[in-house]
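step: validate -> pass
step: tokenize input -> pass
step: predict -> running
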Amino acid sequence: MTFHTIPDLTAVVARSGPLLPRQVDVVVGTSGSGLFAATLFSLHLNCALCSLEHLLAGRTIEAGRTRRHPRLKDNSHEGECFLVVTDVLGDGSELELARKEIAASGLRGDFHYLAVYGADPGSGTCIVIEQVESDAQFGWRPSDETCPQWSPP
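step: predict -> pass
step: emit ->
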């Protein structure tokens, strides 16, 4: 079993450049710790950030005086590149659910799906940056031993 820390996650994000699309306009984080990983990608790529819920509502995460207006005004984002991020692939159901919700919403754009860590190379359905053992532990995700009331979404 291996243990991955936040500095490990940051280092993987920093060296992921060659695996990413050339131009990313918006990084979309899946619920839970996927948004944490998406924040690191957004900072690294210097681009907009939103949660999946924000994306489906047509908004990016906004702060300050310069970000008061929604960036995503309609469902036509042709030519825009979206990077949908989760931290750990698991069985792939989280990214598959995100893919289905985006398709059902009618959003158009260039969508790429990415998991920072995964035991499986993604079966061609998403980018997996670093392969890990299936029993790997992650310092930013509570485990059943450290937080017995917590259960993954």
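step: describe -> The chain has one domain: 3-62+74-138.
step: cleanup -> pass
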